[in-house]
Design goal:
The chain is 57% helix and 0% strand. By secondary structure, it is mostly helical. The chain has two domains: 6-213, no CATH class; 239-294, no CATH class.
Amino acid sequence: MTLPDPVFYAIPLFGLLIAAELFWMKRKGGVAYEYKDAAASLSMGFGSLIPGLLKGVALYAAFEWVHGFALFDIGYQWWAFVAVFFAEDFCYYWFHRLSHEHRIWWAAHINHHSSQHYNLSTALRQTWTGQIALTWLCWLPLSLLGFPTELIFFQMGVSLVYQFWIHTEAVRRLPRWFEAVFNTPSHHRVHHATNPKYLDANYAGILIVWDHLFGSFVPEDDAEPCRYGIVKNIGTFNPLIIAFHEWVAIGRDLARAKSWRGRLMTLFGPPGWREDGQGSTSADIKRLWRSKRAAPAE
């Protein structure tokens, strides 16, 4: 069975929504655009289409190979579409969380967080190196369970399309029941924030329930506006630097490493870890923030 690519058909909608957000910004305010930044995001989006072709060739072959060992024969019955919705979203949560917790995957994901603005164009700032970094391994268990490759890729596209609209400051809060179940602009603003309070939270794709279940949910606090970007912003609109700067940094740190432990931690340890102890991981930043909050006022 051949299923459509949801992302391809959503591209015109992406353009219309960005235009609508720009119109909202001009009339109502509350949304920040820097046009060089938006152009960089668009360049990253178009650039990601090239490695995306790999998904349709090499990755398809890999998923099909694993599917040959499937535990169950899941076809395209109506319930398979329901089941893959939850199963793929679960896989996305863990892919996303691991991409923030291990530097080699963070190197492929960091470009999505590199904008210091939060608008719909930021959603298009997609990775160029995720396929090479093997981030797709998180979805392979779906093939082993027996979900057809076409169905898995279709649902991955649905998830990507859903996550486009949550990259905005124009939408503040949605009904409480919706906020409790689904990923929303409010939840995802927290995910993109660099405030110590918000670091490494809200990894959801479509369903925010995974963050509640696995202890990574942090609500947006109106008293503490989100600051966007990465902990150490790179200050460039050059797509090549945005895409590869963390890989270059990893190569530099590997060359400086003095032990095998240092080399392994450089690749697989948390972002910010340094062999000389001078780095700051998210856990370090949050620990320092909590200690300052707990300190008695002078």
